[in-house]
Amino acid sequence: MRTRSFKSVLKKHKAVFLDSYGVIKNHDGLIPGVQEAIDHIRLLGMPLRVLTNDASRSPDMLAEKFADAGLYGILAKEIITSGTMARKYLENKGVKGKIAYLGTENSAQYIRDAKFEPLHISEVSEQNIDKITALIFLDDEGFDWNKDLNKAVNLLRRRKIPAIVANSDALYPVSANNVNVATGGIAALVENVLGRGFIHYGKPDSQMFMYGYERLKKVGRYRRRDILMVGDTLHTDILGGNKFGISTALVLTGNTSPEQADTLIKATGVIPDYVCRSIAD
Amino acid sequence: MRTRSFKSVLKKHKAVFLDSYGVIKNHDGLIPGVQEAIDHIRLLGMPLRVLTNDASRSPDMLAEKFADAGLYGILAKEIITSGTMARKYLENKGVKGKIAYLGTENSAQYIRDAKFEPLHISEVSEQNIDKITALIFLDDEGFDWNKDLNKAVNLLRRRKIPAIVANSDALYPVSANNVNVATGGIAALVENVLGRGFIHYGKPDSQMFMYGYERLKKVGRYRRRDILMVGDTLHTDILGGNKFGISTALVLTGNTSPEQADTLIKATGVIPDYVCRSIAD
Amino acid sequence: MRTRSFKSVLKKHKAVFLDSYGVIKNHDGLIPGVQEAIDHIRLLGMPLRVLTNDASRSPDMLAEKFADAGLYGILAKEIITSGTMARKYLENKGVKGKIAYLGTENSAQYIRDAKFEPLHISEVSEQNIDKITALIFLDDEGFDWNKDLNKAVNLLRRRKIPAIVANSDALYPVSANNVNVATGGIAALVENVLGRGFIHYGKPDSQMFMYGYERLKKVGRYRRRDILMVGDTLHTDILGGNKFGISTALVLTGNTSPEQADTLIKATGVIPDYVCRSIAD
Amino acid sequence: MRTRSFKSVLKKHKAVFLDSYGVIKNHDGLIPGVQEAIDHIRLLGMPLRVLTNDASRSPDMLAEKFADAGLYGILAKEIITSGTMARKYLENKGVKGKIAYLGTENSAQYIRDAKFEPLHISEVSEQNIDKITALIFLDDEGFDWNKDLNKAVNLLRRRKIPAIVANSDALYPVSANNVNVATGGIAALVENVLGRGFIHYGKPDSQMFMYGYERLKKVGRYRRRDILMVGDTLHTDILGGNKFGISTALVLTGNTSPEQADTLIKATGVIPDYVCRSIAD
N or C end of chain C: smaller count of CB under 10 Å? Predict the structure, then answer.
């Protein structure tokens, strides 16, 4: 496994997309040296966007969390979440009525931002079921899996409405050894028992890369290959970046450990353009 | 859709396997006329076995439930459950130690019957995790999906132990319109996020049919085609029966409605030898 | 199933995306009345793009085929194929070296247009295998499935290179009753035996819709909901259009028959904004 | 990875099931020392059965091939193939009429042995299509994949008949570095494009183990745990043996290399009771 220094890879590009979890921070807090890395990118004058599969909090709340953790200088408007993509779906389709959701009160902000009325899955009833126009999976927290997943299954059997998965990740780490089932893993249970697929947002889907690219083009002229996607996960960050046609760098500070990297790249056929130990390297 | 009277189909066979849910009873209670149908089978002197994908209760408890519902004459030893198959796995493999399980106290009886020590998933801890030798999915009730599914995922990431699914059904009906996610649907979530398949018992798997057949051969000589499997579900009862080489009859009192039957048979390619409106027909 | 006249649906929009097969033509030739429908769109002054999952021929050749069939007025530069998307992948990633492909000589044009050197799968040998930098599935014709699929499997086991599927469709109709396995069905065999997923282009993937949208924005200002995607297939045209946030109309002249439409919409949860009998309606 | 000598593992059991490919022989010929290993089993007086996922040749032909390769003393009636299971399906169901098949002339012997009339897939025509009562996938050779897979797809779309896969393996090795797509991989293409599952025989399915066990019980009294299944493949030999409740030993002379064994066992959760370098060890 040949690795390169992140600084040398940066030099070949004109803009950066960073994944958040596993690149900027992990279950332990900030990745060591990340502040210096961000400062270095700023120094080079390169535009930066954070692309994260997260619909549990709005970009504003995520920017605040970075600051709370001690990382300064990432603006809310530089953060693009998979929740934003789901919000844009609602806006574009002009769906009317109530939007049922699985998630926390915080995650429902995406629905309110799109000017729709959120309805927590636990509040779906005979009285309002006919007014629901979509179901969204926003977070793995904030609802009772036993009761509310059964409710979601029956809602989708009764009503011909779209179901949207605002974060397709299956798992997320909660400590050095333990993981939790993420929104995408829960949605897959419902898809599986119903035998149908939902509308998924988040990396590796092209839509999030495209949105980032469109926002980048408002501040300058960039070809796709001028952009570097930096991520810790082959099947989201790297696959999505490769497919969208931008450069990709795998870092080894998250889901992909230095020991596994080579085997995983070979097994999955998802090949990053570069491998770096860390963005602080 | 050409249907035949169940009595005329019975005449061509010498033994009967009945599915329980959708054939003998449903969410409303007993299927009308089922007592007469069972009595008729007895009158013909045909041996009968109930083959059910159920690991939530022992055969003894299920026999009692039939009687409580007002159906008489089905003996506990005529009932073969997918839980029995899981129990036999434990006995045959001679697995030692504690068996972690997801399910109710009632379902844990299968573990105790195999002379093993059940450990409810919620009680798995750093102190006992190294003594666990298998994980079994027994029922969809009796545990907290949010907490305990995450526990099951992490247990299987930490320990190299077999995972057994004692009921592979994805859904079960709870009222005329509503369903619940069944044990198999929950297990599939864990299989999916871990990217591995577990050991599954229950129809359509051959093992349950074989076990029923072996028990039948203790009371008489039967060729496979002498046996009639009666079920309401194409991909469990009928597929399993077809594959095992016994006769199959689909009844329209459960999962497969008279309106859908023809379309579903064509779409799935799972073709019953006979279609009957009901076992009371 | 309530249908609307295509003309009345058109009026609510400012631009049109048309699928080709099942909308403009089918195995029998042109859909009756399609010339009038295209002329009507021109009369309204609405920009039109054809979005087709096809990598067997270049847009130039497809435009010629429309004219040969007797349909006039669709320009090559109005045709966007999934092959174009694959070509752009090669251009964007700046992949060097030989590109191995499965398909006809015609389909290899996409590789030459990207300024790469195509190598037919049958010509892969010990001498050139180390110079191959990607494998592309372009067409279901032009190679020997027995020999060349085995060759593709072994190439991907030996070399850590990306594999690209330029048309993800599983089947295509060849007569009123018969279908052929399409490129996506063949690629899935290889993905399945290798246990890895490839990079897929074509509807329902967002990338093709985005590319169409970007080209549209060069000729005028359009919001997504101003655009109408017209297609005959729920899981490509309609799902992709819905996800991208544009309007969708299902026509019943191709994969989805008038008899099945309602059932399929309910079963898949893919809900078009409108259903029209035909674009000539 | 702790390995044990095969002889010491044998001592704990009373009967042996051996996989063929990867255990007895491989692409290079006989595994070194296999004759001595078979002779040793004979000396101990242990009954032996060969359980192989192979429907390309009858047990008689396979016994002859062992002898041709220089291995003596394995009788045709000790060989149980997945083709035998498919043959028994036909016999048990008493299917009448012509049986269409994909495979070589040799493989069609299973159909003739069941007293049915084989019809090579290439000979299916408008004249005989209505007389076909089942389709069987027997071998990956003996037919034209381009033409005949399309024919199989259209046959199954037209006729409501069962489809049987007599060997579910996805790949088989043809040299030290190369593999070929096997019958199961080809059948999966057809299942995938049609969206339905077929009836599969062969390990890990219980039916083959059961058949071997039943034949064993005719020559003596054996509990399941008295039997040792020896195989080189985790997801067929070992998974199937574990599920059926017999002892399992993984050998490292075939699909599972000494380097990968530990990682694969952990990744798949399929845990053999023993690991041996070779049956000659």
Answer: N
CB contacts of C180 in chain D (<8 Å) are 150, 153
Identify the pLDDT of residue A95. Answer: 66
Compute the C-alpha angle B192/C265/D157, nearest 5°: 80
> Does C232 map to a domain?
no
Give the whole-angstrom CA distance, residue A155 versus residue A100. 9
Which B residues 105-144 touch D at CB under 8 Å? none
**Which chain C residues have a beta carbon less than 8 Å from that of D185?**
189, 192-193
Task: Clarify whether residues B162 and B135 are in a common domain.
Answer: yes
Task: Give the relative orientation of helices A183-194 and B183-194 as an angle to the nearest 10 degrees.
Answer: 130
Q: A178: which chain B residues are within 8 Å (Cβ-Cβ)?
A: 150, 154, 157
* Interface confidence (ipTM) of the complex: 0.93
Handedness of CA C210, C213, C217, C222 (dihedral sign): negative
Chain A residue with the nearest C-alpha to that of C159: A266
| Domain end among A153, A183, A200 | A200
What is the predicted pLDDT for the residue at D266?
A: 85
Contact C92 A245 (CB under 8 A): yes
Chain D contact for B45 (CB, 8 A cutoff): no
Element (H, E) at D231: strand D227-231
Number of separate domains in chain A: 2
Beta strand pairing call for A25-26 and A29-30: antiparallel
D186 shares contact with chain C (CB less than 8 Å): yes
Domain check: are B152 and B212 in the same one? no
In a domain, D71, yes or no: no
Instruction: Report CA torsion sign: A265, A266, A270, A275.
Output: positive
Query: CB distance D205–B210 less than 8 Å?
Result: no
Closest Cα in chain B to D209? B207
In a domain, D69, yes or no: no
- Give the tens place of pLDDT for each residue, A199-237: 999 999 999 999 999 999 999 999 999 999 999 999 999
A200, A227, A242 — which closes off a domain?
A: A200
Q: Do A177 and B193 touch (CB under 8 A)?
A: no
CATH number where A271 lies: 3.40.50.1000
In chain B, the largest separation of any two C-alpha atoms, in whole Å, equals 61
Give buried/exposed letters for B206-231 (b at 16+ CB in 10 A, else e).
bbbbbbbbeebeeeeebebbbbbbbb
Q: What percent of chain A clears pLDDT 90, i.e. is strictly above it?
A: 89
- Shared domain for B195 and B210, answered yes or no, is no
How far from the centroid of its chain's Cα atoms is residue B35's Cα?
A: 21
**Closest C-alpha to D228, from D251, D254, D205:** D251
The 10s digit of each residue's pLDDT in A22-48 is 999 998 899 999 999 999 999 999 999
Domain contains D70 = no
Taking the alpha carbons of C58, C63, C64, C70 in that order, is the dihedral positive or negative? Answer: positive
Q: A188 and A103: one domain?
A: yes
Same domain, A187 and A212: no
Confidence of residue B266 (pLDDT cuts 50, 70, 90): confident
* Contact D150/C at CB under 8 A: yes
Chain D residues lying within 8 Å of B265, measured CB to CB: 160
Q: How confident is the model at residue D95 (pLDDT cuts 50, 70, 90)?
A: low
A vs C: CB pairs below 8 A: 82
First-last CA distance in chain A:
16
pTM of the model: 0.93
Confidence of residue A177 (pLDDT cuts 50, 70, 90): confident
- Transcribe B196-218 into DSSP letters: ---EE-STTSHHHHHHHHHHHHT
- A196 with A209, same domain: the answer is no
Cα-based angle B95, B101, B105 (whole degrees, multiple of 5): 115
With CA atoms as reference, the chain D residue closest to C150 would be D180
Contact with chain B for residue D213, Cβ under 8 A: no
Task: Provide the pLDDT for residue B203.
Answer: 96
Together in a domain, D194 and D88: yes
